[in-house]
Specification:
eight-stranded parallel beta barrel, alpha/beta, binds ligand LLP, TIM Barrel, 2 domains, Lyase, Ornithine Decarboxylase, Chain A, domain 1
């Protein structure tokens, strides 16, 4: 459930009219709802009540300081994949002891920064990286807590571009190497194994792949313990899907996910770490855009928007479905239209042959479910400036990232001497 509803024909985020925000900040912009973020975090955490569980929000889904600070207040930890995300999480008030560091290519300086901060654990992704972490920890005279991210070779049955748990994916330690990696950890002085980690993919709408992968990891943990490795926690990753439309696949509830995990873990006696991203932030954000023009071809009606694929990449990159609704409720017989952006790419399309109330230039439009992997994946392609992000709480709203100016964008470029003489 989210807090974007029509009230008297006007789309509102909580108690704030979306068109009021548009007047104040201009379009396009991202708009987040605090109540929705809080609700999603609570519903997810409640599914693990009574278990020793830490919910680490996957910062890659939405790294805005206001979003992170909102979740920090609720007790969230963070799953980070770069020094930038680590800095963002710490700055937003997420304590280091609740931060896990994942990612297939951590640099030595990133490892050092995380060690100095005192994070909860590194999720290691390769044997070479393990050696690097040990070397950096040795130079800092500390012992790094590590979990091995294992690749369980399970098909997540999601879009190929967001599937991570098959042997052919670049993620995790191959299943056949896992035992020798734990043995190596034991032999090294400046790392200690604290857990096992996995993440099989994103936007999963079926519990079975999770169940299969988690069961493999439970058996592995028991086996590792018999071999003398003190595994105290399991990091189960993220990936639980969200509803993107009323017609799309219905994902399991967090409650059902929690019950399945408790069943699979049984009496393992491990604390658990969970890394949801999309589930917390996805439906807590919309992208608000204005329709610029209508154009018809022999076969199509195009609604041309002022937002583009550089602002929200998901439809172009994953053929993702996002609901598109008018900010002022419309009546009138539905028409079929393609919603497109102005970028010079055929893939700059938000929706193809979508049934919609008839719209006209100047109308404001909301692209829904854009709170996760929206703003964070945006670029300045076609020299389009980064969008502002706005957050609502009750009847208040605030700009939580200002719109980049074109001057700021262009001032990043520097002319070499030979062109300025
Ligand atoms: N943990 C790890 C190690 C991950 O790699 C990810 C996501 C998550 C947690 C969070 O997954 P979530 O709960 O959000 O599904 N840009 C794509 C999604 C990429 C996900 C990458 N990893 C999209 O827009 O669908």
């Amino acid at each position: 459930m989210d807090h974007f509803q029509y009230i008297n024909g006007h789309l509102c985020a909580e108690d704030v009219r979306v068109d009021t925000v548009a007047k104040a900040v201009g379009t396009p912009f991202y708009l987040y709802s605090t109540a929705t973020l809080e609700r999603h975090f609570r519903v997810f955490s409640d599914a693990f009540k009574g278990s020793d569980a830490l919910v680490c929000f996957a910062v890659k889904a939405n790294s805005n300081q206001a979003v992170l600070a909102t979740l920090a207040k609720l007790g969230a930890g963070a799953d980070v994949v770069s020094q930038g995300e680590l800095m963002r999480a710490l700055k937003a008030g997420i304590p280091a002891h609740k931060i896990v560091f994942a990612g297939v290519g951590k640099t030595k300086s990133e490892i050092a920064a995380a060690l100095k901060a005192g994070i909860k654990q590194f999720n290691i992704e390769s044997e070479a990286e393990l050696e690097a972490i040990n070397a950096v920890a040795l130079s800092l005279k500390v012992c790094a807590p590590v979990s091995v991210r294992v690749n369980p070779d399970v098909d997540a049955k999601t879009h190929a571009k967001i599937s991570t748990g098959k042997a052919e994916n670049k993620f995790g330690i191959p299943w056949s190497r896992v035992h020798s990696v734990y043995d190596r950890i034991k032999a090294l002085k400046n790392v200690r194994a604290v857990g096992v980690d996995l993440h099989i993919g994103s936007q999963l709408t079926d519990l079975d792949p999770f169940k299969a992968a988690f069961a493999k990891v439970v058996a592995l943990t028991k086996d590792l313990r018999t071999k003398g490795h003190a595994i105290t926690h399991i990091d189960l990753g993220g990936g639980l899907g969200i509803p993107y439309s009323a017609e799309g696949a219905v994902p399991p509830t967090p409650g059902a996910y929690g019950t399945m995990i408790r069943d699979v873990l049984g009496d393992l006696n491990c604390s658990i770490i969970l890394e949801p991203g999309r589930l917390i932030a996805g439906n807590a954000g919309i992208l608000v855009t204005e329709m610029l023009y209508e154009k018809t071809s022999e076969t199509r009606r195009f609604y041309i928007l002022d937002a583009a694929m550089n602002d929200l990449l998901r439809p172009a990159m994953y053929e993702a479905h996002h609901e598109i609704i008018p900010v002022t409720e419309k009546t009138g017989e539905a028409v079929i239209a393609d919603f497109v952006g102005p970028i010079c790419e055929s893939s700059d399309v938000f929706a193809v042959k979508r049934s919609t109330p008839p719209l006209k230039p100047g109308d404001l439009i909301a692209i829904k479910s854009a709170g996760a992997y929206g703003a964070v994946m945006s670029s300045t392609y076609n020299s389009r400036a980064l969008l502002p992000e706005v957050m609502v709480s009750g009847d208040k709203f605030a700009v939580v990232r200002k719109r980049q100016s074109l001057e700021e964008l262009i001032s990043m470029d520097v002319l070499p001497d030979w062109l300025t003489d």
